[in-house]
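Treating backbone geometry as a discrete language has practical consequences that deserve illustration. The sequence in question and its structure tokens are set out directly beneath this paragraph.
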Amino acid sequence: MITGATGYVAGRIVEKLLMEGLTIHAPVRNPDNQEKLHYLNAIAEKSDGTIKYFKADLLTEGSYEEAMEGCELVFHTASPFVTNVKNAEKDLVAPALIGTKNVLNSVNKVESVKRVVLTSSCVAIIGDAKDLLPLPNQTADENVWNKTSSVKHQPYNYSKTVAELAAWELNKGQDRWDLVVINPSFVLGPGINPTSTSESFNIMKQIGDGTLKMGAPGLHIGIVDVRDLAIAHYNAGFTPEAEGRHIISNESLTLLEMVDLLRDKYGANYPFPKKELPKWLVWLIGPFQGIPRKMVSLNFGYKWLVDNTKSKEKLGMHYRDSKDTLNDFFGQLVEAGIFK
């Protein structure tokens, strides 16, 4: 069973599971909405696997039990990923935390489940890039926890942290099912739906539509290809000895370095930024663009570094070239007519 099946990350996981010939139970808000299920159904038709839909809601207790019956493996990917919200507690923290508790409380009731793979995030490890300064080599591994985010500061990061902590707490209270956690960095790459509404698509749109043509903010971030992330989830589900948390991240780049990987192929036709904006300017205008000044102060100009060794050694991860990730992703948006 997989929650959030119609989402950006989950879509590629479902694709991988279907191609492996598995039967997938997909709880969704409206199983009759064929338009929303179009991309998943198209993959299912070409695969040896089967997908079955069930009506469920993340915030309704017990609504996943029907979909979960008979499943040994549960992937929990559903969690809101938005950065600009009016009410962080209601729009981010509550859905992430209550949703995780609802799913895992159902796991406790459904005897067939043996393993849960939870999609957490690197933001449950690092709140702000400045938090890395006291760490060895200023690099985080799976032993580090985000202790600096809150509902008021980096609320998305906080939502992922409290949800993962709750999952580990629920896992400790029983001994039938084990928990394996995936902690991806910023996810990029082509999804199964070329017009998704995720933050990843928003960043790529801003790179190509001229929003950033005056300059790219000096933000350093870790990136991972959504197709590699799907493999990480699959391996976490089907590697018997897999345990604990796993940082899934290819490499860390600034926004300008990401754009530079697109220049050869697309630079002549799109208004890409050519320089980095100074931190003081981003600090000054950030609030008008939905970027809080505290976030600018604690992240811009600092390196964001994580150790992905465990993912390679325990989940057999081999990360594809970032240039391929970015060009495949940007190319998908070009083909979908996203840019004028």
In short: Residues 2-335 form a domain with the Rossmann fold fold (CATH 3.40.50.720).
